[in-house]
């Protein structure tokens, strides 16, 4: 039997197709651990340069050296997809990882949220992001490092604030309010208006300018790029490039439980049916699988830090067991984590997985603190809304150009980190070049106003 993991890729692909998986081509490449950490931090093999990625890189290195995390693979969906495997992986690791990647590739090709976002951005995201990075380098040459970094500070501080329910390439708001319909207050007038076109044309109300925005706008990157009073074209391009990449990353974030669970289910199934894998490698791979999908407990199970691999894998196993492949594939295509968890996490499964909160009493007995399944589902999902960021929208653009933001704390249920919010406002004000204000609440849910740029 071969000791080269790459020799097993075509055989695993053939088996996956026989079992019903359908994916765009994937290129596999083994890379040094340092490069794995770098692309995991940047999110893409080549991406626009910024100091914040360096800070994240140092954090990942510390985590890895302390034994808290290990990167087996990094996958970038697309057509083709790109999978990077750590060169320090053993044969068993890479066989399992290859099977896992095929599950991811099947998911990203067929899940509707993934498809919609990729079609709008680019199926060639690696090359697309590299083009953005080259443009940033040209901007640095033309405008200087400090000027470009100032724009990136603002754009990347808002990278979570996109609206994927809107198209990537949006039009500006209508300049005027829609023409009001002439009043029709009785049957005779209604018949008269219908019969005499001149009567309708004679009623010509004065055009009214539409407010900007006409409704609370949560796509902050788009709004600033489109309506900032004095933004230069290269600055707008940077904001829109960051927005494009956020569109690409959104389905990765919004389907993490589903996606990791789907990939884990299929790597386990492929390994079980891959009779060409050496016995020793199979045993080692199954041990690795058990580590990947184990629940992660904190303290004396006062609460669980939920492992998305474990949660997703368990839910998919149950769906396959009860309803079979067609139902599972229909859910995979249509759901995101919100609908997936709400539709498929039952009270029975939650109890089996130990997801409810427990408390040890003075007499030594362990009792369930809460067993509200709806509350549990929402507690698992609460940090997934809006990329996990507080809900902030544009409320108003005043005549003098002042930008008024509003933190929707009643929906959000939490306060802003005040110092961080001040920094973000300062970043935004430098590119908006007019005062910027936000109405919010602090960690104690006390109302406060923050501002930047007021003279």
Architecture overview:
The structure is a single chain. A hairpin with a 4-residue loop joins strand 4 and strand 5 (303-305). This protein has helices at residues 9-18, 33-42, 51-65, 91-110, 112-121, 125-143, 145-157, 187-195, 197-202, 220-227, 233-254, 256-273, 279-292, 308-323, 325-334, 337-344, 347-353, 373-381, 409-412, 418-432, and strands at residues 26-31, 73-76, 81-86, 296-298, 303-305, 358-360, 366-368, 392-397, 403-407, 436-441, 447-452. The protein has a four-stranded mixed beta sheet. A three-stranded mixed beta sheet has the order 1-3-2. Strands 4-5 form a two-stranded antiparallel ribbon. It is an alpha+beta fold. Among the domains are: 125-170 and 212-253 and 390-452, no CATH class; 293-385, no CATH class. The radius of gyration is 26 Å and the shape is globular. Mean pLDDT is 83; it is low at 53-69, 297-304 and 363-368. Helix 7 (145-157) runs parallel beside helix 11 (233-254) and helix 12 (256-273) packs antiparallel against helix 13. The chain contains 20 helices and eleven strands.
């Amino acid at each position: 039997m071969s000791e080269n993991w790459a020799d097993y890729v075509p055989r695993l692909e053939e088996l996956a197709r026989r079992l019903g998986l359908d994916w765009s081509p994937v290129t596999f490449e083994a890379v040094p651990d340092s490069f794995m950490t770098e692309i995991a931090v940047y999110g893409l093999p080549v991406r626009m340069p910024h100091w914040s990625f360096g800070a994240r890189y140092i954090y990942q290195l510390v985590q890895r050296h302390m034994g808290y995390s290990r990167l087996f693979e990094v996958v970038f969906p697309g057509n083709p997809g790109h999978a990077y495997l750590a060169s320090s992986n053993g044969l068993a690791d890479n066989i399992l990882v290859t099977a896992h990647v095929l599950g991811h590739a099947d998911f990203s090709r067929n899940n509707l949220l993934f498809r919609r976002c990729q079609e709008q951005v680019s199926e060639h995201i690696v090359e697309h992001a590299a083009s953005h990075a080259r443009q940033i380098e040209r901007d640095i040459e033309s405008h200087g490092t400090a000027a470009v970094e100032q724009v990136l500070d603002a754009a990347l501080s808002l990278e979570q604030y996109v609206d994927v329910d809107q198209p990537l390439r949006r039009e500006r708001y209508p300049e005027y309010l829609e023409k009001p319909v002439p009043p029709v207050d009785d049957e005779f007038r209604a018949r008269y208006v219908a019969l005499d076109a001149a009567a309708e044309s004679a009623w010509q109300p004065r055009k009214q300018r539409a407010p900007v925005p006409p409704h609370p706008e949560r796509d902050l990157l788009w709004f600033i790029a489109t309506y900032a009073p004095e933004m230069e074209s290269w600055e707008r391009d940077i904001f829109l490039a960051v927005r494009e990449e956020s569109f690409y990353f959104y389905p990765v974030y919004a389907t993490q439980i589903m996606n990791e669970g789907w990939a884990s289910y299929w790597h386990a199934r492929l390994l079980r049916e891959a009779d060409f894998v050496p016995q020793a490698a199979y045993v080692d791979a199954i041990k690795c699988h058990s580590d990947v999908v184990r629940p992660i407990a904190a303290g004396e199970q006062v609460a669980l830090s939920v492992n998305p691999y474990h949660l997703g894998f368990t839910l998919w196993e149950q769906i396959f067991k009860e309803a079979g492949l067609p139902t599972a594939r229909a859910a995979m295509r249509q759901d995101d984590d919100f609908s997936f968890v709400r539709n498929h996490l039952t009270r029975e499964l939650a109890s089996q997985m130990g997801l409810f909160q427990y408390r040890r009493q003075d007499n030594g007995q362990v009792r369930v603190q809460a067993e509200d399944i709806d509350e549990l589902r929402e507690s698992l999902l609460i940090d997934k809304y809006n990329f996990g960021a507080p809900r902030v929208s544009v409320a108003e653009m005043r005549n003098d150009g002042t930008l008024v933001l509003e933190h929707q704390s009643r929906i959000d249920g939490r306060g802003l980190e005040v110092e961080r919010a001040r920094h973000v406002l300062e970043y935004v004000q430098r590119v908006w070049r007019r005062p910027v204000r936000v109405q919010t609440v602090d960690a104690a849910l006390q109302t406060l106003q923050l501002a930047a740029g007021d003279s």
